[in-house]
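Attaching the record inline, Q. Sequence:
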Amino acid sequence: MSQTGPGPREVEHEITVSAPAATVYQLIADVENWPRIFPPTIHVDHVEQGAAHERIRIWATANGEPKNWTSRRTLDPDTLRITFRQEISTPPVATMGGTWIIEPVTATESRIRLLHDYTAIDDNPTDLAWIDEAVDRNSRSELAALKTNVEAAHQADELTFSFEDTVHINGSAKDVYDFINEAGLWNERLPHVATVRLEEDTPGLQTLEMDTRAKDGSTHTTKSYRVTFPHHKIAYKQVTLPALMTLHTGHWTFNENQHEIGGRTVVAATSQHTVVINTDNIARVLGPDATVGDAKEYVHTALSTNSRATLGHAKNYAEQRA
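Structure, as predicted:
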């Protein structure tokens, strides 16, 4: 359902899912899982959090372009509604808000309605058309992904796993952060990176494309969006995925210990990954007898090897500077 012509827009999208309404509501209410659930979402965190009201920061793509904004949300678990309103929108959006409404159809089926209202800066028709397209594309994508994730929740539990690698560094968190942040130099600094392209049109919001070398000498291309928080965290979502993954998110964190060793601050530098295995490609990549467990082990080893190599070079960089 949508509206055309000048002035404020009000549009509605809906989808029916095979899951109880309360389950669907909880999935939408928990924003920190959004990068796993919604394809456009790169990263979400809380600015303020109360029982019924919260402020969240969202980094997401709109028509393939990374954007970020802050929204206020009101959560009502009794009526299964969540209202949201952007505080400061990103141009060309002037105002943006809406409501999630979850309606029980049966005990095991529910209807999700996603309402939006928005305006463009100066009511510019070209910008309004761009917003129309972005809202329509993201809404359809979000609802389709939500349906898939809710209905496959039991299977996703088996296919989803997380892990992390930590290296302790006698240096400053800033130097370690700088090494990871300056990914545009990785082809000079990291042997497993063949070529790299880093864009940061908006400060703190990066697009990173790399060609990396595998142990067998082959190269593969990856693309990620990254959100940076100097000098303690870089969160990312990979959007060009290898065959064995349907999802890959993660973050780098840099925590300085309060005590010192030999007069130098110790930094715990951690690389964290969350992955969902793509069962459709296990046989093709690993052979007809390979299991989900084999795929997890293969992916874990590959990601961990690269992460540890990167952290090792970051350690050398930071300790030399210290």
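Residues 292-321 form the longest helix (30 residues). The longest strand covers residues 245-261.

More tomorrow.
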